[in-house]
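TA notes, week 10

Several of you asked for a full example with nothing omitted. So below is the full record: structure tokens for the whole chain, then the designed sequence directly under it. When grading your own attempts, check the secondary structure regions first.
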């Protein structure tokens, strides 16, 4: 076990691009200096999505100009093979969102008099012709999600609030239900920021009002199955994702310093928070978007980059790796850095979008044996961030410790003789403390203020 964890920590490296990482490598980065950033958040880039067909892989990234499609089959030789100008472009654009269905790409924007755009992806890498571009259904949307099992597109935010459209004819969406105007119980939900849907069951992220779960299987009898409006470290309930084969939902509050919540949703009438997890980089860190793939939860963090958590024990994920895509300085009230992550390509490569640094292709290298690490009980240190005194659980007394900086360099070591470790000699920054004895080992990230 100790050998496994030592190799796990030694995979931390400082790349030539000056980005900090652990168990993830950068294969490609693209940004266009000719594109202008938004006036609101200085972000040139926004959402990321992926698509695969006939042995080819594609990255789809939004910008203030529109939608860029890259052939990323060979990451080092990635190239833009398509561009779709937005109905609205320029510095007013902050948000775009994407989802694909039946070889069509659906694109929305939440600024200006925009449109719903649909592109045919079957001709890639040669072209991606636009087959629909209209504001007839709605001019703006913040997010969309397509439940491919029922060919339904769920549209939220913007001018829509929350509506469901049929994609039985994929190039001619038709309205099925406009929730605020047709469902009396929707007044308790109100504006919806984002949604995740599987099998006609929608997990609805409704900002400060929390999480709601609604059954759309019978459009003549739409019912609420459960809700969670009071939970630890609540903030602006931004987005979430459901694990594929376990009843666990990860929820991200887009609020400075708030942890991700891990929810047991086996009983939707009694949703339970089983754990909270964080990048633990800075008090101003913010989780933004997140996606499960198999037993790994991938998260895009403003300022901090892409984080991966091992969920072999789904109730208590543990850090598996990260890659910092951002050079931005943490600031309260500021939203910059990594916007989105897409880990669902067949190759296993990870796509990420950074608001300032553009498209990234990352390759995870999680070490064998990490499942053993995830099975251990989680150890917390406090206060975190600390001004120099780090308190450990009493069970750590008698263990040895090693503190490493994020370049993998050992900066302090010794024996835990009490529940207090003095780290006041360390410069401000992020560190890993490794606690071990002959039988077990724990690794925790902390911040020295």
């Amino acid at each position: 076990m100790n050998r496994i964890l030592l190799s796990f920590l030694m995979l931390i490296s400082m790349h030539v691009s000056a980005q900090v990482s652990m168990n993830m490598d950068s294969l490609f980065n693209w940004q266009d200096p000719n594109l202008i950033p938004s006036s609101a958040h200085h972000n040139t880039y926004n959402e990321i999505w992926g698509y695969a067909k006939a042995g080819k892989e594609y990255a789809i990234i939004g910008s203030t100009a529109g939608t860029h499609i890259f052939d990323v089959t060979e990451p080092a030789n990635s190239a833009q093979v398509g561009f779709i100008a937005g109905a609205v472009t320029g510095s007013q654009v902050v948000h775009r969102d994407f989802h694909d269905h039946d070889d069509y790409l659906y694109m929305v924007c939440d600024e200006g008099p925009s449109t719903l755009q649909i592109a045919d992806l079957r001709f890639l890498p040669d072209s991606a012709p636009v087959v629909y571009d209209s504001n007839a259904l709605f001019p703006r949307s913040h997010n969309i999600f397509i439940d491919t099992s029922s060919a339904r597109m769920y549209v939220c935010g913007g001018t829509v609030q929350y509506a469901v459209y049929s994609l039985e004819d994929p190039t001619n969406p038709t309205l099925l239900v406009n929730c605020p105007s047709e469902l009396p119980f929707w007044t308790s939900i109100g504006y919806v920021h984002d949604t995740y849907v599987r099998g006609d069951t929608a997990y609805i992220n409704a900002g400060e009002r929390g999480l709601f779960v609604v059954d759309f299987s019978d459009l003549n009898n739409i019912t609420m199955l459960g809700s969670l409006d009071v939970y630890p470290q609540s903030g602006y309930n931004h987005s979430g994702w459901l694990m594929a084969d376990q009843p666990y939902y990860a929820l991200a509050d887009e609020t400075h310093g708030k942890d991700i919540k891990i929810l047991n949703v086996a009983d939707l009438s009694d949703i339970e928070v089983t754990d909270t997890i964080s990048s633990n980089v800075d008090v101003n860190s913010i989780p933004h978007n997140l996606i499960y793939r198999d037993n790994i939860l991938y998260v895009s963090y403003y300022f901090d980059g892409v984080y991966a958590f091992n969920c072999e024990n789904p109730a208590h994920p543990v850090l598996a790796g990260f890659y910092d895509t951002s050079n931005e300085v943490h600031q309260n009230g500021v939203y910059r850095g990594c916007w989105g992550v897409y880990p669902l390509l067949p190759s296993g490569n990870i796509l990420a979008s950074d608001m300032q640094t553009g498209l990234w292709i990352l390759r995870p290298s999680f070490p064998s044996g990490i499942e053993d690490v995830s099975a251990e009980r989680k150890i917390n240190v406090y206060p975190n961030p600390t001004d120099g005194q780090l308190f450990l659980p009493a069970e750590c007394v008698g263990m040895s410790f090693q503190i490493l900086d994020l370049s993998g360099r050992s900066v302090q070591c010794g024996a835990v003789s009490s529940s207090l470790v003095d780290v006041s000699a360390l410069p401000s920054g992020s560190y890993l403390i490794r606690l071990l004895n002959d039988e077990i080992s724990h690794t925790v990230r902390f911040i020295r203020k």
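The chain has a mean pLDDT of 90. Use that as a sanity check on your answer.
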